[in-house]
Amino acid sequence: MKDNLSDNIMKSGTSILGIVCKEGIVIAGDRRSTAGNLVMSKRSKKVININDYIVVAGTGVASDIDLSQRVFGAELKLKELKTKIRPSVREAASLFGMMTYRNIRTPSMIPSIVGMLVGGVNDDGVTELYTVEPAGGVYPVDDYDANFSSGMPFVLGLLERQWKKDMTIQQGVDLAVEALKSSTQRDVGSGNGIDVFTITKDGVNHVVSQEIIPTYS
Hints:
Elements: E1 11-12, E2 16-20, E3 24-30, E4 33-35, E5 38-41, E6 47-49, E7 54-61, H1 62-83, H2 89-104, E8 114-121, E9 127-132, E10 138-140, E11 144-145, H3 152-162, H4 169-184, E12 193-200, E13 203-211
Antiparallel strand pairs: 1-7, 2-3, 2-11, 3-12, 4-5, 6-7, 7-8, 8-9, 9-10, 12-13
């Protein structure tokens, strides 16, 4: 008999993406969570600011994303209190990678499945973007990435064609919105809303918060 347990778990199939721009980083995601072929939530925000200098976007099992983000924020704060130094973006991404690596290797009936984009700005004003894949590997991103989100094939196809090395933050925001809208047209795990954050030397800003509402005649 086929085990349908995985079909009953709320998942963030999702489209997330990160774009490296001339002045900083753009991170974006949609708002849909599913269980099997059922849309369970239209308000699941996959992109959140962990603190005033780190933004993360997650894909995978919705409960794992939520717990991982909260624990990640707490661990970063503890690290800062212990060392009296604000962790760098690279240190933050490495911390999350270690958490992910440990979680998937802890015996469990339902393994933790989370992929994450981690972007932020360091004390010196330098911005960085990292992708943490579901097995715990941490990789710097110098152009763009969509991790292992279900919308990845649609997102990367557009970014491959339209991303430019010296694009401005506003161009990055416009491209992120276009990529997400393209993905939601084809990926059943993506939709219902768009959130876009920018990260520059001046800090973190939530620049797009858009609900996608169906219209009926």
